[in-house]
Design goal:
Elements: E1 2-4, H1 10-15, H2 18-23, E2 26-32, H3 43-51, E3 55-62, E4 67-74, H4 77-110
Parallel strand pairs: 1-2
Antiparallel strand pairs: 2-4, 3-4
């Protein structure tokens, strides 16, 4: 679950967390319908960005001040849960490869 309310900078924050968006199931954030803050992204920009990660807007609460709150849900929660379930196993499988790469770099550096 991701919750963001940072006065018009939500899209930039989302862009900086692609790994978290891959495993998150829900996103709750402030969205703008007007330029409440100078240069702030609008709701359609956030919708488009989150769609790329499999999210769909499922709830919206508008205010009369040009902003509101939106809840996004992963289109395919089942796949997200599978990824999250198998993530520890993936890390275990990657560990020998990481060690091998480390040793190769150290060996090459020492020569």
């Amino acid at each position: 679950f991701i919750n963001i309310d940072i006065q018009g900078y939500e899209l930039e924050a989302l862009k900086g967390m692609p790994n978290q968006l891959k495993i998150a199931e829900y996103v709750y954030l402030e969205v703008n319908f007007e330029e409440v803050y100078s240069g702030c992204p609008q709701i359609h920009d956030i919708d488009k960005f989150l769609y790329e990660f499999g999210f769909k807007r499922v709830a919206l609460r508008k205010t009369n001040k040009g902003w509101g709150d939106a809840i996004y849900l992963k289109n395919n929660i089942f796949l997200a849960k599978l990824y999250y379930l198998f993530l520890p196993f993936i890390r275990v499988l990657k560990f020998p490869i990481t060690i091998y790469r480390f040793l190769i770099r150290k060996y090459i550096k020492d020569k």
